[in-house]
Design a protein that fits this description.
This is Low molecular weight phosphatase family protein. InterPro entries: Ptyr_pPase (IPR023485), Ptyr_pPase_sf (IPR036196). Keywords: Arsenical resistance. It comes from Pseudoduganella armeniaca. It is a single chain. The chain has a single domain, classed as Response regulator (Rossmann fold), CATH 3.40.50. Strands 2-1-3-4 form a four-stranded parallel sheet. The mean pLDDT is about 90. It contains six helices and four strands. The protein is of the alpha/beta class.
Length: about 160
C-alpha cells in the first residue's frame, strides 16, 4: 500500500507523517509526502524532532504532488488548507481522508511553547498512524466505505 500525506507546503506535518509511517509500517507499505505548493525546504525543527525520536529522514525532500514517483492508494491531508483542495486528476479515484493538525511552525511564543506545539503535532500524527496500522487487514480489503469511515474516525484522534 502506498500512502500520500499531503499538505500545502510539504515542509512540516506531511514530512512528520511520512517519516512516522515509514518507520512503523510493515514491509510492502510505504508513505510519501507532497504539497500542493511546496516550499522546497523541510522544516528544521521537524527534522530535529524526528531525529530526536530516532526516526530517519534520509532522502526526504519537499516536493510537489505533481512529482510523485508512484500513484498512491490513499491520500491523507494533514492541514486545513489542503483539505479543500482538489487532488490532481491523474490520481484517479484514490481513497481520501483528512487528518487535520495545527501547523506547529506557525506557533509563536517561548521556546517551550514552540517545542510543545511540535511535540503535540508529532504525538497526534503518531497516534493516528498507529491506529491506522492497527486496523485488521480485512478492513482494508473489504468494504471501501467502511474503510473510509474508519480512516475518518482516526482523523479525530487527538483533535
Amino acid at each position: 500500500m502506498n500512502v500520500l500525506f499531503l499538505c500545502t507546503g510539504n515542509s512540516c506535518r506531511s514530512l512528520i507523517s511520512e517519516a512516522i509511517f515509514n518507520h512503523l509500517a510493515p514491509a510492502g507499505w510505504h508513505a510519501i509526502s507532497a504539497g500542493s505548493q511546496p516550499t522546497g525546504k523541510l522544516n528544521e525543527r521537524a527534522l530535529a524532532l524526528l531525529a530526536a525520536k530516532g526516526i530517519p529522514t534520509d532522502g526526504y525532500y519537499s516536493k510537489s504532488w505533481e512529482d510523485l514517483p508512484v500513484t498512491p492508494d490513499l491520500v491523507v491531508t494533514v492541514c486545513a488548507s489542503a483539505a479543500g483542495e482538489t487532488c490532481p486528476a491523474y490520481l484517479g479515484p484514490v481513497l481520501r481522508t483528512h487528518w487535520g493538525v495545527d501547523d506547529p511552525s506557525h506557533v509563536s511564543g517561548t521556546e517551550a511553547d514552540i517545542e510543545r506545539a511540535f511535540e503535540h503535532a508529532y504525538m497526534t500524527l503518531h497516534a493516528r498512524i498507529a491506529a491506522f496500522l492497527a486496523l485488521p487487514p480485512e478492513t482494508l480489503r473489504a468494504d471501501r466505505a467502511a474503510f473510509k469511515a474508519e480512516l475518518d474516525l482516526i482523523g479525530t484522534i487527538g483533535a
